[in-house]
Amino acid sequence: YFKRILPKIGFLFMAWMTHYLPFYFMPRINLSVGDVLKLEHGGLSSLQHVSLGRTHSSGSAEVRRILATTYLKLNSEQILIHSGSGEAILNFAQSVMNMGDQVIVQWPCYQSLYQCFIQRGCIVQLWTPTLVEHPATENKRSRKMWSFELETLKKLLKMVPRLSGSQSITSVVINDPHNPTGFGFSREQMFDLVDICKLHDAYLFSDEVYRELYFDKLNESDSQPPAVCDIYEKGISVGSMSKQFGMGGLRLGWIATSNTHVLNAMKLFKDYLSYSVSAPSEILAIITLRHRLSIMKSNTRIIKDNLQKATNFFAANQDIFSFVPARAGPLFLATINPTAHDAVLAVYRKSGLKEPNDTSPHRSASTQSLSSLTTQTITAPILIDMFCDLCLSKEGLLVVPMSTMKFIPTRIPRGSFNSLSAPNIPVDKNAWIQDWFRVGVGRKNWSEALAALGRLASEIRKQLD
Predict the structure, then answer these.
(1) What pLDDT is attached to residue 374?
(2) Are 162 and 125 contacting, i.e. CB atoms less than 8 angstroms apart?
(3) What confidence tens digit (pLDDT) does each residue in 282-341 have?
């Protein structure tokens, strides 16, 4: 059943990226087992003597104790360990939500954050960002930034459809810091968001895998917001060893919440998922978490340095690119300026690459040959895809076009599942995002990737002259 829930193409795509591409714009700093064992004396001995018997279904007492210290108000009994954050998302959707319940998802997002709820039979609405002009401060000029407006969320909550005679649950699902826009809530905004959820008696399910990666203060009084589990009794925080620690291979994530109903429901359902996590993974996680502050300091420095390099690069190439800098997390979005579209098309023609596939929903139905295409007859998403194709074919550089993050809800018919009307998601929810490509700045060799992009930019610029 669960094999059918999770699209197989995602796993194949990630395997291809990991094994066949020399460097790419992805947001990860990976640690090795050797790196972890060097963190403390006796680390190797701890790993060698770990029992390979079944571990506790809630996670080892020690890993939960350490994780509890990273929150303000929680204890170890309010942490539930999972085999990765993806399992935690699936568990919440299956154990707490019901068919016909309402879910509002901050979008675009990691596919599981909406797909798991759709598979459960929930009615999903999308909370999309807008570009806003942020006023200048003493230290910074005015600039455009992505923003998830709370007024938009209020309108969505008022529009929430109800099935007649049902006592439906409402959940607001966020990813903070946000992948892929680099948006992060301010402290004040987070408390306002909690107040809105309280008003509607809604759960606030927060994917916080980049929680400690806040860089850009909106003003002098701004500070990093707390985890939602620390400030709301119906708040559920999701964490992971994958993203900010660079240990995706451990497959260890968790949820943190003070809500007894959620904890009990998820504990019960987890028995039908992984039941328990790998014992060696827990030992490696414990060692890493003991040295969490020094690791985060190092990783944050790498990301901040790369963000500055990105700022300098896009400033030097503003005749070709535009970008919106990240406020938090290792990701942001960039695009190609309309004035450079003809130049990109010219480089693409010279490359010998095949004409773009015109069959996907976001592209036009044109059947013209590549030689007859012009920037008047192709859409911006196709041009972005062409640019990403050029990056890969010419430089071995993987740049992810946002057309890959289209909202395409899929559901599995079963029993009364068919009687529930499909979520009413307008097609134009996908339109704006496909004009951008995603950039991640978490790699140590990121300068190599930036140099590759610079070489392609120089080739494009020759067509501008």
Answers:
(1) 57
(2) no
(3) 988 999 899 888 888 888 888 889 999 999 999 999 999 999 988 888 899 999 999 999
Query: What number of helices (H) and strands (E) belong to the chain?
Result: 15, 15
How far is it, in rounded angstroms, from Cα 301 to Cα 297? 6
Half-sphere exposure of 169 (CA within 13 A, CB side): 20
Q: Tell me 116's DSSP state.
A: H
For the chain, percent of residues with pLDDT exceeding 70: 78
Cα 314 from Cα 462, distance rounded (Å): 17
- DSSP code of 326? -
Scanning the structure block, which residue is given the tokens 């439906």?
A: 168
What length is written for the chain?
A: 465
- Count other C-beta atoms under 10 Å from residue 95's C-beta: 19
Please name which of 303, 334, 444 lies closest in space to residue 400, comparing C-alpha atoms. 334
Distance (Å, whole) CA 352 – CA 85: 41
Query: Token pair 């529930």 is at which residue?
Result: 420
| Cβ-contact 409, 397 below 8 angstroms | no
Q: Which residues contact 72 (CB under 8 A, 6 or more apart)?
A: 226, 227, 230
Hey, is 212 helix, strand or coil?
coil
For CA atoms 112, 113, 115, 118, give the dihedral sign: positive
Closest CA to 226 of 255, 188, 254: 188
Q: Which two tokens mark 395?
A: 């430089």
Cα dist from 8 to 12, 36, 341, 408, 438, whole Å: 7, 31, 34, 15, 22
According to DSSP H, which parts of 175-291 are helical? 187-199, 260-270, 279-290
What are the helix (H) ranges across 121-250? 150-158, 187-199
SS3 361: coil
SS3 332: strand
Tell whether the model's pLDDT for residue 154 goes beyond 90.
yes
CA 348/CA 19 separation, integer angstroms = 26
Question: Would you state the pLDDT for residue 242?
Answer: 84
Token pair recorded at residue 375: 């920037």
Which CA distances in Å does 5 have to 45, 116, 201, 233, 349? 40, 8, 29, 30, 40
Contact 352, 394 (CB under 8 A): no
Q: Is the pTM of this model over 0.90?
A: no
Q: Provide the mean pLDDT of the chain.
A: 81
Tell me the C-alpha to C-alpha distance, in Å, between residue 372 and each of 293, 377, 425.
Answer: 56, 9, 34
How many beta carbons lie within 10 A of that of residue 12, not counting itself?
A: 10
CB atoms within 10 A of CB 431: 14
